[in-house]
Specification:
single chain, about 280 residues, mainly alpha, about 75% helix
Length: about 280
Amino acid sequence: MGQPTLKKTFYSPESQLRQPSILIREMLSDLFASRGLAWRLFVRNISAQYRQSILGYLWAFLPPLFSMAIWVLLNSQKIINIDDPGMPYPLFVLTGTVLWQTFVDAINSPLKLVTESKEMLAKINFPREALILAGLLEVIFNFFIRILLLVAIFVWYRTPVTGTAGLAFLGVLVLIVLGLMIGILLTPLGVLYNDVGRTIAIFTQFWFFLTPVIYPMPKEGIVALIVQYNPVTPVLVSVREWLILGSSSQLMGFCVVSFVSVGFLLLGWVLYRIAMPHLIARISA
């Protein structure tokens, strides 16, 4: 497969939004053309991520596994009092933790890939969509590794896979789209200011506690209201319930978040495409 070629890039003062049909055609064309480069970037990043590590791919398992162990211990010792989630608590919290980590990975992937590729962006003209696709492949790859943890705990608790497991995988895709949408919208600002990446890390830690990852949906109080309007809530809860219970109590919210996420992902893609030439010019200066 050929290497990315050097090209001259010409900037026009006319906004690309004035010709939306041409813009969309070029976006789709570049997305299709970026597949090969995206795959090579994905393979390179995964190899680098696990190559210089004694534990290797175990690092994909350890964060959700240790997080589950901590919350199970705190709950079993009554240090925290978690309401009965209607299923074994370790199964409940591990499923939620794996889904949450996938969501956070999706938020971080666009900015992470663009930041790591600054030197290449400054020297080579290639479809910028390759960076987004490579990040998406990393998120999906890490999720499928973590599935092995879920399989193990499902077997341990003898929990049968429900007939709605296929919907659960659709829900995971929506969760990734939601995270990717947020990440793409923040990427142009994050390239300019390192504060954005640090803010994402702090905010997602706070967001974790306002999402029913380790506890079931609260029924009353101000936290219950915040959790209810948290966009991650209907998606994460639906995926977990489809996997374990066979039905979703958050179906309407899931559909609304799915629709909005896809729409804003497309908007973020347009903004990313328009902003990248200007960001590259600043990087190269």
